[in-house]
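Hi R.,

Quick one: here's the Hydroxypyruvate isomerase sequence you asked about.
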Amino acid sequence: MKKSLCLETIFTDYSLPERFLLAKKAGFDYVEFWGWQNKDLSQIKETCQNNSLKIAGFSGDQDYSLLAAEERNLYLDFLEKSLIKAKFLEADYLIIHSNALGEDGKVLIDYIELSKSVKYINSYQTLIEAVKLAEKYEITLVLEALNTIQDHQGNFLNSTADAAALVRAVKSPYLKILYDIYHMQLMEGNLLNNIENYFDVIDYIHIADSPGRNEPGTGEINYQQIFKKLRQLNYQGIAGFELFPLAAAEKVAADLIDL
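And here's the predicted structure, written out as tokens:
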């Protein structure tokens, strides 16, 4: 598997360019971040090239939702802009969600007036068009389900089963699941079984312990067993550490690379 460090949540006392160097020093060859609009992408590309780093992925949606049919063209326009940026950075993945997310991951609109069936249909129809763009740029979209208990109240996709149903319905090699272990521990548990049951559509994993979204070993998730299962399954995708360290960031990063 390819281990990636999320630079939005670690080394936050340093500038973004410094975080890239610290990730490399800790042993990471892949890094990731959230949105691209507030970043100097030319500088990021130069930093990666000079330090043998690769961008694993970043967020490909912003202010628009898969759920709203009237936003479909706006969603796809922004997605294509994100794909162009991903191609420039030589990233392999773009992360997408069901709802638009604002500051601190707040769901901007929950579309409570729409039935679950309508939300599925609208999402499916937008994703059918989205994978055509993904294929054009040869970048895989990974659809992330989020917890609605603590962090993202009102988000439509909040289970592995629902995300997988959409991905399997679209049937494209350019659409997979981002399986976030922290989110799914809160929502459904049964982590080892779900990793195995949905392994065919998982191509990106986010890692943090629960509760707290901190480093493995600080919460209730048995990450030794998680990594054992991933190795048994010969997982070849991204394992991204998107967590807020409680211990010193340099030590945490160095420990993560050895998991």
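The chain has a mean pLDDT of 97.

Cheers,
M.
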